[in-house]
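Field reference: sequence -> structure
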Amino acid sequence: MKAQIWFTDFVIAILIFSFILIAYYTYTTNISKEDFSSMDNLVADAKTISSSLTTGGSPENWNSDNVEIVGFTDEYNRIDNTKFVEFTKINYNKTKKLLGTPYDYSLFFVNESNDVQNVEGFCGTGNSEVNITYDLSAAYYYEGPGQENVMKGFMETNFNADVYYDKNKGAEDNEDQEALRDNINNYDFIVIEHPTWSNADFSAFVDIADPWVKAGGILFVGGQMGVSQNSDGLGVIFKKDAGEALKNEDATVLREDEFLAFHVDDKITFEQAYFVKNNGATDFIDVARFDNIIRDDENAIALARWSKDSGGVLFFSDFKATYLAGDFQAILEASATKWANAVCLPINIIGLERDNLVKTERLVIHNSDQMKMVLYLWD
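Structure field:
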């Protein structure tokens, strides 16, 4: 009887063990199949996306609004700069749909030494969790707490910029225009936003900034520079209407420019109207002019850039504007990045939370330079 009970228990134990063993192998086999299936899908999507990006896309002259198929190279794999910039304007989730993938991605370009390259102001694009940084010494100046500071967050986040503002408006003694002037040679790129300097402060800044720009410094300015109706410096006259600045004035884009993603005849409505007149600046390019502000028998210039030897100045009437054809803030920030000509630091994807990751590379040409387009795709 005991032997029979023991045998029955033994059989039950064997059955339970067999069931567990079968369940385990079935589970692990399914996981393996799922892993392989996921990896196969990632590889297939990565190849498809790389192939698509190295075409001209559709329609033929697509933009961020009407794009059906994303592609930004010609038949010789030369990057079409305009199409690439249009691609960077598209919302990330929308780009995934256009590329036909549910997976996250990061796209960037490297040279033969695997150094990340700045392409049209971008060191990379794609998932925001991928840290993209620039090797650039930068500063940002604005009028003070509570005043216009459209570019402040961008400058701090993207360029780790030192921030200066008028000590008379609440800053510490070392955070004013005098400190910026003292430290100007420490910087490659400076953004000045609506400082409204007194005549004396404007002249003091110009005296320091003029040789700095000539030596290669890059300046990006917007808003009212000096309180005077005519503030002369840096090769132009910074102008404003008598009294308060004109509000919500329309400007028309006159010409397309490599540093600005606007199109001819586009309308930009600047919240405040400040303008410039060329006064001896070299390589002066007027990109947009106000429609209704007539000074000295010519339309006032709302958007312009000019170079002084190896450096340069890019001017916006205001960093606050309405642009019906696109995202003005995004264009403003992209223009600053491209104008700064910043060197890209290595892109590190090691810390990303992921199950599977694939990488593809394609040879492309940007402005006559051969480089590799690198695409990472993961789930």
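Note: The chain has a mean pLDDT of 86.
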